């Protein structure tokens, strides 16, 4: 284990726990930085902590988290081997959608997490997470379609957009899509198909992938 990177991640968590960069800090019980091993090859990025996450300081521990665990187990992935975080680190009031200014305030934290974890595949859960790499796309059109995103001809990462597990719990009609996308993720990881090479739009040129 890289002790320097571990120390940097611990320091980042401490910074997030004491963050006051947006008004959400005033209503939180706990900030929710993320969870998972430093050497995780897969990173899941959700949208925001909910009630249970705010209470425990751990991402995806409520109903959506339980469903995520079931989906991972169904394709033979140990949840303890993936890294899980959210676009924003504090619970919005009433579990509303993140605001643009809240996403902007937390973006440096997510950038640094990616730089430290260096995942090979990033699974985005929900449209707010997907917008990090694909700001002009509709999740209904691109879910389950892996794309290898390159910037400046140097850094690349495979992004795999999906519906958020909570969306499938609230809209059972989406469950078939979510479960099919997890099967496609398994096939992607097994090398049965390759991600489309995607040219980032100019407005995303400065996106930090690692």
Tally of DSSP β-strands: 6
CATH top level class name:
Alpha Beta
The helix count comes to 8
**CATH homologous superfamily name?**
Uracil-DNA glycosylase-like domain
Which topology does CATH recognise? Uracil-DNA Glycosylase, subunit E
CATH architecture title: 3-Layer(aba) Sandwich
Q: What general outline do the C-alpha atoms trace?
A: globular
Class computed from helices, strands and strand pairing: alpha/beta
- The strands making up the biggest β-sheet line up spatially as 2-1-3-5-4-6
Give the rounded overall mean pLDDT: 91
The secondary-structure element order is HEHHEHEHHEEHHE
Radius of gyration: 16 Å
Ends distance: 18 Å
Any low-confidence stretches, pLDDT <50, length ≥5? none
In percent, how helical is the residue content? 25-40%
Q: Give the amount of beta strand, in percent.
A: 5-15%
Largest sheet, in brief, is: 6 strands, mixed
Folded structure, characterized:
A 6-stranded mixed sheet has the order 2-1-3-5-4-6, sandwiched between helices. The chain has 210 residues and is α/β, with parallel strands linked by helices. 38% of the residues lie in helices and 15% in strands. The protein is globular and about 45 Å long. It contains 8 helices and 6 strands, in the order αβααβαβααββααβ. The chain has one domain (3-201): Uracil-DNA glycosylase-like domain (Uracil-DNA Glycosylase, subunit E, 3-Layer(aba) Sandwich). The model has no long low-confidence stretch (mean pLDDT 91).
């Amino acid at each position: 284990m890289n002790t320097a990177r571990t120390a940097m991640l611990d320091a980042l968590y401490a910074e997030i726990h004491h963050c006051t960069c947006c008004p959400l800090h005033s209503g939180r019980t706990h900030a929710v930085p993320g969870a998972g091993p430093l050497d995780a090859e897969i990173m899941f990025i959700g949208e925001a902590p909910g009630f249970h996450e705010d209470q425990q300081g751990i991402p995806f521990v409520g109903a959506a988290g339980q469903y995520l665990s079931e989906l991972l187990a169904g394709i033979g992935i140990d949840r303890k081997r993936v890294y899980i975080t959210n676009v924003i680190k504090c619970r919005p009031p009433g579990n509303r959608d993140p605001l643009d200014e809240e996403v902007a305030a937390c973006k440096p934290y997510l950038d640094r997490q990616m730089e430290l974890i260096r995942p090979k595949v990033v699974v985005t859960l929900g449209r707010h997470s997907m917008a990090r790499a694909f700001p002009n796309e509709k999740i209904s059109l691109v879910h389950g379609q892996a794309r290898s995103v390159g910037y400046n001809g140097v850094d690349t990462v495979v992004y795999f957009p999906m519906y958020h597990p909570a969306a499938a719990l609230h809209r059972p009609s989406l469950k078939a899509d979510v479960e099919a996308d997890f099967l496609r993720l398994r096939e992607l990881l097994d090398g049965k198909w390759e991600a489309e090479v995607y040219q980032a739009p100019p407005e995303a040129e400065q996106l930090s992938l690692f």
